[in-house]
Amino acid sequence: MKSLKKVEYLFMSFLFVAGSFFLLSMTTDIQDDWPVPAEYKDMKNPLAGQDDATNIGKTLYKEHCESCHGKEGYGDGSKAGDLDTEMRDFSDAEVQGQTDGDVYYKSFIGRDEMPNYEKKIPSVDERWRIVNYIRTLVE
Ligand code: HEC
Question: Which of 32, 33, 40, 69 maximizes ligand 1 atoms within 8 Å of its Cβ, making it the mutation to test the pocket?
C-alpha cells in the first residue's frame, strides 16, 4: 500500500511537470501574437508592386536588418544567437500572408528585441522600399 502511494506521488509530480511545460508553451504562443493597430494594418503601401530598380530597399535591409534576420530573412543573422526572442522566417507564409501595413508596423515600430526604426529610418519612402524588399524574400 505504501509503495503504491509512492507511485501515485510520482505520477502526480510527473503530471505537474508536464502540465507546467504545457502552460509554458501556451505563453510562448501568446507572446507570438503581435497585435497591429488598425491604422497600421490597413495602411496603403504607396509603392506596392513597384520594382526597386535602384536596390534601395535591399541596401537598407543589408545595413539595418541583416545582422539579425539574415541575408535571406531566415532569422539566421550573425546577431541572432544573442537574442532571446525567436524570429520568424520572412519567407514563411506566416509573414508573407500579413498585410504590408502589418509588416510596416512590426518593422519600424518594433517591440522588445525588435528595435524601433522610426528615428534611424525617418524616410517613409525608404521604409516601404524595405517592406517591398521583404516581399521578395520568398522561397
Ligand atoms: C537586433 C536584432 C534585430 C534587428 C537588427 C532587426 N530585427 Fe526584426 N525582429 C527581431 C526579433 C527578435 C523579432 C521577433 C520579435 C518578437 O516576436 O517579439 C523581429 C521581428 C520582425 C518582424 C516581424 C515578423 C513576424 O511577423 O513575426 C519584422 C517584419 C521585422 N522584424 C523586420 C525587421 C526589419 C525591416 C529590420 C531592419 C530595418 C529589422 N527587423 C531589424 C530582431 C531584429
Answer: 69
Query: What does the mean pLDDT of the chain come to?
Result: 90
Q: Which of 36, 106, 109 to mutate to test the pocket of ligand 1 (most atoms within 8 A of CB)?
A: 106
User: How does pLDDT run across 91-115, given as a tens digit for each residue?
Assistant: 999 999 999 999 999 999 999 999 9
Q: Is the C-beta atom of 112 inside 6 A of ligand 1? A: yes
Cβ-Cβ contacts under 8 Å for 91 (sequence gap 6 or more): 72, 73, 74, 137, 138, 139
C-alpha to C-alpha distance for 19 and 131, rounded to whole angstroms:
40
